[in-house]
Design brief:
This protein is mainly β and about 120 residues long.
Length: about 120
């Protein structure tokens, strides 16, 4: 069992940056691949970025490549999402999730946090 709690969301102007954190608990946390998803109002939840258990492999959605960076610190049981050059289109609730496989598919993720709101003003 893995419990996930996101933080770091907020209101930022276009072009600004935010860093989201996801604190994980559970004895098997380090065995899981971690991902970030987001869901904008009226839209389906979509994959943003994922990272392998060791941190050596990462995967990104095309719309965030070059702007967002996912990382993890297993000693702190924390996953991060550094978001730069934010645009209003990045406005969404951002969710941290854990998966037993290296995947970008929502259905492959077993554990989810409650989400943190990111709002980008123009």
């Amino acid at each position: 069992q893995v419990q996930l709690v996101e933080s770091g969301g907020g209101l930022v102007q276009a072009g600004g940056s935010l860093r989201l954190s996801c604190a994980a608990s559970g004895r098997t946390y380090t065995r899981y691949l971690m991902g970030w998803f987001r869901q904008a109002p009226g839209k389906e939840r979509e994959f943003v970025a994922g990272i392998s258990w060791s941190g050596s492999r990462t995967i990104y959605a095309d719309f965030v490549k070059g702007r967002f960076t996912i990382s993890r610190d297993n000693a702190k049981n924390t996953v991060y999402l550094q978001m730069n050059s934010l645009t209003p289109e990045d406005t969404a609730v951002y969710y941290c999730a854990a998966s037993a496989m290296y995947s970008s598919r929502l259905r492959d993720y077993d554990y989810w946090g409650q989400g943190t709101q990111v709002t980008v003003s123009s």
